[in-house]
């Protein structure tokens, strides 16, 4: 079940990366997907942690989207047109709203995962040390 969620989380983050960069070489996309899958496999011990990391990455991608758009428009022309300014405004509003939503959602998932890990006992509890009883000697 963990591997299915790692695959789905990687798919979601990969779709966000594709939406962020648009046309990107296949090698870069495959590299990003493998990197995310490896990261989720390494850090995701539970399904909640896998989705917490996935939503955090989607939130960071949502934050980077308007920044990426502004850099692309700045390098394209000296003065952006009114249509381009409207596109930037929409990207900033939607990108910041989406990033705040996804980062807040991931914070809630992290908080839930941390609370669950604090209440569950460790898998291999340490052996308990019993205090030695003093030796009683028989009276004759």
Walk me through what this model shows.
This protein is mostly helical and 140 residues long. The chain has helices at residues 2-21, 26-43, 47-76, 82-119. The N and C termini lie far apart (67 Å). α1 runs antiparallel to α2 (26-43), α1 (2-21) runs parallel beside α3 and α3 runs antiparallel to α4 (82-119).
Set out the fold topology.
Layout: H1 2-21, H2 26-43, H3 47-76, H4 82-119
Helix pairs in contact: 1-2, 1-3, 3-4
The number of helices is 4
Mean pLDDT level: 85
Main sheet: strands, sense, barrel:
none
> Share of helix among residues?
over 70%
Beta-strand content estimate: under 5%
Question: Which characteristics define this entry?
Answer:
single chain; 140 residues; mainly alpha; 76% helix; 0% strand
In short:
The chain has about 140 residues and is mainly α. It has helices at about 1-20, 25-45, 45-75, 80-120.
